[in-house]
Amino acid sequence: MTNAYELTGLRHRYGGRCVVDVPSMQVRTGEILALVGPSGAGKSTLLRLLNFLEAPTEGRLVYKGNEVGHDVPLDLRRKVVTVFQRPVLLRRSVAANVRIGGRIRGERHGGEKTDALLGRLGLAGFGHAPARTLSAGEAQRVALARALIVEPEVLLLDEPTSNLDPYNVGLIEDVVRSENHQRGTTVVVVTHDIFQARRIAQRSGLMMAGRIVELADTETFFTTPQRQETVAFLRGDLVDSGAYIPPPPKRRRRSRR
Amino acid sequence: METIGRALVDAIRLLRELDPELVETVALTLQVTLGALIIALVSGIPIGAAVGLARRLPGRALIVPVIYTGMGLPPVTVGLFTYLLLSNQGPLGGLGWLFTPTGMITAQTFIAFPLVVGLTMTSVQGVDPDVRTQMIALGASNRQVALTILTEARIGVTAAVVAAYGSIISEVGAVMLVGGNIEGETRVLTTAIVLETRQGNFALALALGIVLLGIAFLTNFLFHRLQVRQGGP
Ligand SMILES: Nc1ncnc2c1ncn2[C@@H]1O[C@H](COP(=O)(O)OP(=O)(O)O)[C@@H](O)[C@H]1O
Ligand SMILES: [Mg+2]
């Protein structure tokens, strides 16, 4: 079994505060790995590191043998895509939004692929609709189609179905699972829905305060967790135990002004 | 009241006859306006986008107020500045652009350029910052990210075009100074209106005014159609 990612001594800090601290972790090629954990645990930050959106402050992040730091080559960056919790669609048609990933990679056509993907995601006939008019569930499905059309090696999902109704959750999970199954796409999904982890992931992990507390086969993780924190989190009383620390209000980065 | 009524009748006659002097003035107006507009857009949009998108821009604290000031410059001051620049003793006197349409285009470009830069900058900054992150996460290069954000800002950029166009076509002071309002050479609609009014040729002045309004409305009508097609209000 080969690894897609190998993390060694990985630390990421924001203004001196360490928000990700992972001494060792592997993401296996072709697996679906779920990460659960309370808000502010560093899950999104870890995904940003895995998508090469930021370079870790410390330690090694290796993707398929390539150590990744600053200035990640474009062709490497293009192997990994993220679907975020809030789908950010462009002021264009649904089809144009789906095609954008291919366009970025210099593909000029892609009409059939777009239609096929929209069909798989229950959006047949939506191609010409303005993307900004979609419901939250539809918009998230478009975001998933936009990520899948480029056939990424790695698909990162950051709470892709929170706030969605069961119909949309089911559709999205089905497509993710079949993509993983048919194309061998490596998937890392961050979710605070432990049942979602159980439904789709082969391995599951708990992240708290920047650390991976426990990471195991999904079955083991849910039936015979080894760590006290996992037991508490799965039982749902972490919030009461005082271990839950709400994240401080996000400061707007000064450089953007 | 009677003067206005007579002037209106005369104006309609002049328009119907396609008075050659009128046609010439309109042609030069369009030439100067479009010339300055195109130069201001081609140079101003990329610069405005770059300033708006730059994460770290040394001197932003100074650059932005300078742009804002440029957006509100009194045109006649710009005219004076361009005049001095292009006059025989000026640094660009050798070009011989003073009292030519090229000189007028130069002055009008100076007036429109800060407007284009400023409005492009603000509309680019108004785009959801997550668009950038999402595009990078989809594998876009820096250039592709910038182009996508600029395209997202297109309604605001069209507003920049409208503002620049309006400031150029309605401008009098600068073109008067730099062009000199020479008949058949540098006379545009606005300067012609000033002249004809002063000489008491109210019919001609009014006809010119109607044409000016008509052109402005027609163009803005087209700009608006464009905005609507882009999904704007
Ligand atoms: N850009 C940033 N600048 C400063 N702090 C940040 C930034 N992004 C996240 N953080 C902080 O890092 C911690 C982890 O955040 P995040 O990765 O979003 O957690 P999760 O996704 O698990 O809820 C939080 O305390 C958050 O406030
Ligand atoms: Mg998060």
Question: What are the distinct ligands in this entry?
Answer: adenosine-5'-diphosphate, magnesium ion
**CATH architectural label of chain B:** Orthogonal Bundle
CATH homologous superfamily identity of chain B: MetI-like
| Total number of helices of chain B | 11
Which spans of chain B of ≥5 residues are poorly predicted at pLDDT below 50? none
| Order of helix and strand elements from N to C terminus of chain B | HHHHHHHHHHH
Order of SSEs of chain A? EEEHEEHEHHHEHEHEEHHH
Percent range of helical residues of chain A: 25-40%
Question: What are the main properties of this structure?
Answer:
heterodimer, A: 257 residues, alpha/beta, six-stranded mixed sheet, four-stranded antiparallel sheet, 35% helix, globular, B: 233 residues, mainly alpha, MetI-like fold, 11 helices, binds adenosine-5'-diphosphate, binds magnesium ion
